[in-house]
Structures are given as C-alpha cells and as structure tokens.
Write a structure and sequence with these properties.
The chain is an alpha+beta fold and 189 residues long. It has one domain. It contains 5 helices and 4 strands, in the order αααααββββ. A 4-stranded antiparallel β-sheet has the order 3-2-1-4. Strand 1 and strand 2 form a beta hairpin. It is rod-shaped. The protein starts with a helix and ends with a strand.
Length: 189
C-alpha cells in the first residue's frame, strides 16, 4: 500500500490531476450552498410579502368588522325604540358570543373577494404570490405567501416547488371573538 503512495508521489502532474478530480466536487458543494442561500433569500421575500399582506388584511377587516358591528347595533337601537326598552347596544353585542362570531363570519365571507384582492395586491408588490389567509391566530390575521424556488443544482427535481413564509398582522380585540381551534381559512387558487 505504501509502495503505491510513493509511486503517486513521484509522478509529475499529480497536483493537476487532483485539481481536475476535486474541481467538480467543489462546484457541486458551492452550487448546493448557493441553492441554500437562494432558499433563505426566497423565504425572507415571502415573509416580507406575507407581513405586508397581513397588515392590509387587518386594515380591511377593521373596516368590515366596524360596519357589521354598526349594523347590529342599529338593529338593537331600532328594537329599543319599538319595544320602549333601554338596552345598551354595544354592551349587548359584547356580552353575546354568538353575535360576535356572526359579525366575524359575515365580515369574512361577505367580503372574501375584496380581502383576497387587497392581500394579493400587497403580496405581489413585495415579490411573492399569496397562498392563504387564516383568521385568527392568537387574535391576529395570518397570511401565507410563497415564492417559486429555482435552485442552482437539481432544478428539474424542484419544478413547481415554493418557499413559503408567514406574516402576522397586529392583534385586534375582535380576533379573540373567533375560536383558535377552528380558524377560518381563505385560500387562493
């Protein structure tokens, strides 16, 4: 065995031969590391886009929930004048979980297309595609965005693969009206 090593050490051009053999290995390693960097950068883009989408969705939901709440409180005020009662509409709504859940459900499903349009606009402005909106994660709206992954190596194995990122909007009181165990989810095509 040592005799073979001495022969290798004595021949001219061994360094060149080693470089020729090692160069493809180094290229594969660097391409793999480059693909990891691309995935990491795509994840950052997806999270930034999802954050923008979740802020936009929260702003729209503020408008929709306020409008739904106003409709319910106006109905209660009308009943007050018809029945000659003096019920505080805001306290009445806040004390009934079924009414609060109905407000959230109406705000989401009656305005689903507008919410999707607003989220899509902000997510695409930030370089990603929207994937889904989840109502509510700990009182916050969660948006999932995705970016197409194109690695430097083994690209054919990663066709139609995406790097996903999540963004969370600010906490809202109405976000706690809906149970976390059964979130409302709106998906994009």
């Amino acid at each position: 065995m040592f005799r073979g090593m001495r022969t290798i050490n004595r021949k001219r051009g061994n360094v060149t031969l080693m470089w020729v053999v090692a160069l493809p290995v180094f290229m594969i390693i660097f391409m793999f590391l480059g693909s990891l960097v691309i995935a990491w950068m795509n994840h950052a883009v997806a999270e930034k886009a999802a954050d923008a989408g979740s802020l936009a969705a929260t702003k729209k939901m503020d408008e929709y929930v306020s409008a739904e709440l106003q409709i319910i409180m106006n109905k209660i005020l009308e009943n007050n004048t018809e029945n000659q009662t003096n019920i505080d509409p805001y306290q009445y709504v806040m004390s009934h979980n079924g009414i609060k859940k109905g407000i959230i459900k109406n705000a989401v499903f009656n305005n689903e297309e507008e919410l999707k349009k607003e989220v899509r606009k902000y997510v695409k402005q930030n370089g990603a595609q929207p994937s889904k909106i989840r109502f509510f994660a700990d009182g916050r709206i969660q948006v999932e965005a995705k970016v197409k992954f194109t690695p430097l190596i083994w690209a054919e194995e990663f066709t139609n693969k995406y790097v996903k990122g999540n963004g969370f909007g600010p906490t809202r009181d109405y976000g706690t009206w809906w149970s976390n165990r059964n979130p409302l989810t709106v998906t994009f095509e």
